[in-house]
Amino acid sequence: MADRLTTEARDAALKDMPGWSVVADRDAVTRTFEFRNFQEAFGWMTRIALVAEKLDHHPEWFNVYKTVTVTLSTHDAGGVTDLDIEMAKKMDRIFGA
Amino acid sequence: MADRLTTEARDAALKDMPGWSVVADRDAVTRTFEFRNFQEAFGWMTRIALVAEKLDHHPEWFNVYKTVTVTLSTHDAGGVTDLDIEMAKKMDRIFGA
Fold it and tell me: What family name appears in the similarity comment (chains A, B) (predicted)?
């Protein structure tokens, strides 16, 4: 199982992840992705869903029309792990930014 | 454009929609759907996404693993319309409950 990152390691990782930030009062990272429309937003979500299922690591996410807000944390570890950083980077890459 | 339902009409419609309720402090209806796992949750979301795109009426929804919480309201009408009731019933039917 992935180990929870120290606060220092988590914050160091975030420095290379523009748009991501730490959730207030919680050891989790979040980013809001804006698309051109619902088709593009849900298309992206579908690609991420396949990645999530393959990694067996699933996001919390909220979608309304062209906006998707994602929160990542590893439940079993009680906080942010390398798996969350990996997932965040995949999300960014598939988003194209 | 769909007209906003009166409170009476909205509440009357909700009587036939077990699981749905009115959101506190907002003219919107909500239901939480529970699935067996992420595959089933996201599979259902994908079917609903196609319906939403066809109707040009999109939900607000939050997913974490096997749970999806949906909120429906018609932005342009400033509240719940027949379109939301139609979408809610389609969601129920595709969910199978």
Answer: Belongs to the pterin-4-alpha-carbinolamine dehydratase family.
